[in-house]
Amino acid sequence: MKLQLEWGRPVRLVDASQENMLYGVDLSRVSEEAGIYIFGRQYGQKFEALYVGQALRLRTRVKQHLNNLKRMKHLDDAKTGKRVVLGGTLITRQGQRLEKCLDIAERALIRHFLSEGHDLVNKQGTKLRQHEILSSGKHRKRSFPKSIFVA
């Protein structure tokens, strides 16, 4: 199955302590469509995903997450960098079921970011179990990556 996500620009999270929240965001810059969202941190040209989710209405779901203290605390505790949220609108083709496509895209992105060593948390707000496999020896450089992260 071929899936297409159209990503918007990262939207920076801002201090919202005056509203008794850790972070706020300009929700008008988040799509109202169905798709995938990623909370993360941006530092220079690099990006680290901290949470990946799906929603039938991205803006509504992002707003709900801003009130999730565990999730926002994980963002706050992350290494330095700008805290951002990315929204990707799912563009379905004829015959594709929206919910199934969202499940597949979310799972694929979670696996991708885990394989890259990103500090993701799952839906319960706890860190996803991940294992690191280190390779060494004479043939390592040609045949295997130095380390592999698996979920």
List the helices and strands and how they pair.
Layout (H helix, E strand, L loop, with lengths): L3 E4 L3 E2 L1 E2 L7 E2 L10 E9 L2 E10 L2 H9 L2 H9 L4 E10 L6 H18 L15 E4 L5 H4 L3 E4 L1
Antiparallel strand pairs: 1-7, 2-7, 3-4, 5-6, 5-7, 8-9
Task: Give an overview of the whole structure.
This protein is of the alpha+beta class. It has one domain: GIY-YIG endonuclease. Helix content is 26%, strand content 31%. The chain has four helices and nine strands, in the order E-E-E-E-E-E-H-H-E-H-E-H-E. The strands form three sheets. Strands 1, 2, 5, 6 and 7 form a five-stranded antiparallel beta sheet that branches. A two-stranded antiparallel sheet has the order 3-4. A hairpin with a 2-residue loop joins strand 5 (35-43) and strand 6 (46-55). It starts with a strand and ends with a strand. The model has no long low-confidence stretch (mean pLDDT 85).
What distinguishing features does this structure have?
151 residues, GIY-YIG endonuclease, 5-stranded antiparallel β-sheet, alpha+beta
What's the quick description here?
The protein contains 4 helices and 9 strands; from the N terminus they run ββββββααβαβαβ. With 151 residues, it is of the alpha+beta class. The strands form 3 sheets. Strands 1, 2, 5, 6 and 7 form a 5-stranded antiparallel sheet that branches. The chain has a two-stranded antiparallel sheet with strand order 3-4.
